[in-house]
């Protein structure tokens, strides 16, 4: 049986420099996009511990849900704010495990990856130039494609947005906690403080490994109806578990639902739930 730890795994996902740039098949074909707008396959780079017997690690599921859009590349000209999201893995027996992921961007130091991105841009621009060249036949040739510019040209736009000699290339990376309960606020603070420690010019009070070890092995689940306070990298973190007589744990701000959907849509969704209608939420 599970020993009642706060978190089971600490996971790192991102770019595997050994395998290089692999198109993300789950995102569909997006070769008409510029290379910086394409998605590439991410991988689980590390996890701690290797495995726990009460919660077997599902590498495919965790890797996909940590970075559902795959790897993203940007340059110094793009916004690179960290993004946080959560997910749930439901097994065949109905048991659940929860994931909390913080995605950020770090500089690409591999010359091979930078060269590969530059090569993709050369290929993209060459294809753009070929499609942009007007046909040598008469007007009938233009009418066969819709216009003389061609509909495919409108899809394949030329962007000189990455030059290996002058631009800095960044790639998305993710740190994640896999937990038995949905303590969203506490996990978000843990990950944000870890990320702050990595990016800060000043080293943290203790090695980062000690904080990760603490969250995985020394912080217990709070008993039902009790609160738990433990130390993060830069400050205390508090989480609370409802008692058996209270509503189940729901650690997400309801305010965000109303801000995203609006009052009328929330009321309509609530009505559909009460009437047991099937509800499908679609998001970009």
TrEMBL record:
Gene3D superfamilies on file: 3.30.450.200, 3.40.50.11500
Acyltransferase as UniProt keyword: no
UniProt cross-references to PROSITE patterns, sorted A to Z: DENN
Molecular function GO labels: guanyl-nucleotide exchange factor activity; small GTPase binding
Cross-referenced Pfam families: DENN, uDENN
Organism domain of life: Eukaryota
Keywords, comma-separated and alphabetical: Guanine-nucleotide releasing factor
Record domain UDENN: where: 24-284
Native species: Bucorvus abyssinicus (Northern ground-hornbill)
UniProt-recorded name of the protein: DEN5A protein
A Gene Ontology BP annotation from the UniProt entry: retrograde transport, endosome to Golgi
Cellular component GO terms, alphabetical: cytosol; trans-Golgi network
TM spans (from-to): none
InterPro entries cross-referenced by the UniProt entry: cDENN_dom, DEN5A/B, DENN_C, Tripartite_DENN, uDENN_dom
